[in-house]
Amino acid sequence: MRFTKMQGIGNDYVYVNCFEEPLPKDPAELARHVSDRHFGIGGDGLILICPSTKADARMRMFNADGSEAEMCGNGVRCVAKYVYDHGLCRNRALRIETGNGVLGLELEIANEKVRRVRVDMGMPVLDPPRVPTTLTGNPALTGQPAANVDLDLGDCRLQVTCVSMGNPHCITFVEEPTDHWVLSIGPRVEADSHFPKRVNAEFVQVLSPSEVRMRVWERGSGETFACGTGACAVCVAGALTGRTQRRILAHLRGGDLELEWAADNHVYMSGAAVEVFSGEWDGE
Fold first, then answer.
1. How far is 101 from 27, CA to CA, in rounded Å?
2. Catalytic status, residue 156
3. Quick one: which H or E segment has residue 84?
4. Are residues 12 and 75 in the same domain?
5. pTM value?
6. Same domain, 10 and 88
7. Residues 207, 106: one domain?
8. Are residues 117 and 221 located together in one domain of the fold?
9. pLDDT, tens digit, for every residue of 134-150?
10. What are phi and psi for residue 180, nearest 5 degrees?
11. Is 89 exposed, middle or buried (0-12, 13-18, 19+ CB in 10 A)?
């Protein structure tokens, strides 16, 4: 099986071109094997680039533990780069089908290769049952989203905001996103019973109304260098709770993303996409 390793600000996946390669019989098992950083290729998961009847290509994404996720913001930017650079479609505006519907992407080209991608990530979901979370909404906010609500973990209580960007996120604003928050509290938030489909946990330091620093404990993968949907959710959560403006720069461990929760209620994300190397996986 031919594969290509790609990364978006350090959020790295193994990509398979299913326009040319057979669809894996067991993508979940394959994801677990190829993602292993000691005995496999290494990555945060597996992404299949497939034909689509409604877009230029379809993205299917599997976490390192084999679970299939609805969306990956960094991953979809890399899919767009692969589709353009490898000649599957040479349009500078692409449509990619995901588990969260069809997304529109605008490509920035340099020397006939995609350098950066701007993604229309769609509208955030704030209704708690649709996130999904059993945490109740905040009556002080219009529509009663689960924003600035308490999450009781037993020995500690967090103030969190819950947002779905096609996949669920739980954002906690902290003085500094330390290892304690991410590596100790993150796994507990992911598995908390208030999140029936588990959840991605973001820990965010507000540097200014237009700038944040964040780290992510990603559902099914552990800490990742970046999470595009998580950064979008942070943009929404910051504006919703009055901590930030609707347009921000987010610093993640792997690099920066530009986010905007625009007047049309869509979240727009801009960032880099990089091809690292290609090779063959023999399945053993």
1. 20
2. no
3. helix 73-85
4. yes
5. 0.90
6. yes
7. no
8. no
9. 999 988 887 899 999 99
10. -60, -50
11. middle
72 is catalytic: yes
- Dig out the tokens for 108 from the structure: 């920035």
Closest CA to 126 of 145, 143, 141: 145
Q: Among 72, 78, 170, 235, which one carries the catalytic annotation?
A: 72
Average pLDDT along the chain: 96
Residue 68 buriedness (CB in 10 A; 0-12 / 13-18 / 19+): middle
pLDDT in tens, 214-268: 999 999 999 999 999 999 999 999 999 999 999 999 999 999 999 999 999 999 9
Catalytic residue among 78, 162, 170, 227: 227
Q: What is the DSSP string of 42-74?
A: --SEEEEEE--SSSSEEEEEEETTS-EES--HH
Residue type, 75: G
Asked if 117 and 140 sit in the same domain, the reply is no
E strand or H helix that includes residue 179:
helix 179-179
Please state the domain count of the chain: 2
Same domain, 10 and 43: yes
* CATH label of the domain that carries residue 202: 3.10.310.10
